[in-house]
Backbone:
């Protein structure tokens, strides 16, 4: 975002008339779950540099999500919060089917004032058991003849969680309710960044972001298995429990280099939080123009994550319960590699530009953790996940 903003402002101010841009995209993502996400984005750019951006998103999600429970060695029958019943074989990770649709609306207004650009944005989204309302603000300062840009921003989200069936008690048998149907969640965030034009071909940027979350941060549908201390066979399940506060930090370095024809984008990121999660990422894109009407862009991303302090594949019967525990694989060790290719083309006799992006993601974790006991040592407790996604988009300026 910082690099794009720094690179585009001088060109925007030179426009002689308002420019409208409409982007229509559809994402299809598939692994254990299937996501279909159509998005419509509208941008209006005024001659004085002011701009408005708005978008509407609809997410349709269906599929099976891991419950957090361990393989039992015997056939299990599980029932979801909405009453769906599913039979699971003894050697597989238990999952439960679900279906949901999310609707989101975002808007953003930017106003340049000499060497300062102010941006104010808003967000609203709703789904079956979650609602989010948010505001963001940002100020960008151009220095050194527009070669340096400093950016400061902040945001606040006021969310509501209302799980199907009500709020559950943490580390209690599933179905143990607190008597409450809704619970709040607040997220405050801040961003500090700088971008610098080093040469006519090279633009770099660095940013630091932080976020503080408070409220209901537990996944209400996830459970943790309680294993027999000798056999490892699950003999009970408890709902997970997470802290009600979380501090997140992220440092990101960006580079854009324009070769004679190609554009190379490099992003390196480091993330950490007070839950104990640490992560590093490397993102590479190389845009290659085939002609004036066609370009391609290979993409490669690698992501490596350590586990949260309270992540457990399972708890051991007879031992004291910890204060917090989760078996959600998203809080465990993860290594993800994504490879993809984007093809864009402008039809010679028609307006606009079409893009098609296809990507494949491979994700793996700790298949045989040290916590595994008895029969659990025989199972792959973090099966490799393969997922593909396709995005088709159309961009029209008028």
Residues:
């Amino acid at each position: 975002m910082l690099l794009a903003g720094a690179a585009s402002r001088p060109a925007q101010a030179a426009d002689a008339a308002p420019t409208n841009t409409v982007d229509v995209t559809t994402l299809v993502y598939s692994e254990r779950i299937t996501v279909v996400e159509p998005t419509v984005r509208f941008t209006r750019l005024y001659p004085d540099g002011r701009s408005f951006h708005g978008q509407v998103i609809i997410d349709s999600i269906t599929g099976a999500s891991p419950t957090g429970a361990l393989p039992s060695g015997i056939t299990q029958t599980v029932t979801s919060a909405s009453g769906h019943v599913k039979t699971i074989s003894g050697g597989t990770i238990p999952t439960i089917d679900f279906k949901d649709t999310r609707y989101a609306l975002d808007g953003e207004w930017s106003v340049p004032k000499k060497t300062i650009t102010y941006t104010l944005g808003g967000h609203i989204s709703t789904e079956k058991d979650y609602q989010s309302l948010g505001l963001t603000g940002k100020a960008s300062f151009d220095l050194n003849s527009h070669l340096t840009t400093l950016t400061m921003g902040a945001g606040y989200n006021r969310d509501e969680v209302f799980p199907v069936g009500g709020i559950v008690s943490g580390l209690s048998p599933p179905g143990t309710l607190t008597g409450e149907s809704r619970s709040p969640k607040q997220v405050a965030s801040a961003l500090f960044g700088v971008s610098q034009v080093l040469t006519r071909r090279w633009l770099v940027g660095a940013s630091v972001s932080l976020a503080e979350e408070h409220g209901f941060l537990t996944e209400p549908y996830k459970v943790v298995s309680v294993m027999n201390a000798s056999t490892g066979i699950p003999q009970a399940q408890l709902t997970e429990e997470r802290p009600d506060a979380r501090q997140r930090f992220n440092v990101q370095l960006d580079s854009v280099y324009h070769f004679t024809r190609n554009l190379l984008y490099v992003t390196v990121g480091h993330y950490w939080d007070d839950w104990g999660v640490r992560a590093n990422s490397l993102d590479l894109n190389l845009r290659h123009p085939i002609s004036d009407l066609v370009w391609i862009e290979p993409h490669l991303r690698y992501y490596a994550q350590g586990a949260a302090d309270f992540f457990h594949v399972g708890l051991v019967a007879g031992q004291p319960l910890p204060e917090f525990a989760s078996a959600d694989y998203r809080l465990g060790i993860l290594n993800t590699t994504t490879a993809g290719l984007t093809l864009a083309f402008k039809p010679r006799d028609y307006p606009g530009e079409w893009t098609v992006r296809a990507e494949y993601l491979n994700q793996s974790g700790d298949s045989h953790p040290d916590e595994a006991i008895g029969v659990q040592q025989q199972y792959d407790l973090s099966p490799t996940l393969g997922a593909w996604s396709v995005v088709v988009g159309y961009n029209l300026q008028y």
About this structure: The domain at 65-95+113-120+127-386 is CATH 2.40.160 (Porin). DSSP finds one helix and 21 strands in the chain. The two ends are 23 Å apart (CA to CA). Residues 2-13 form the longest helix (12 residues).
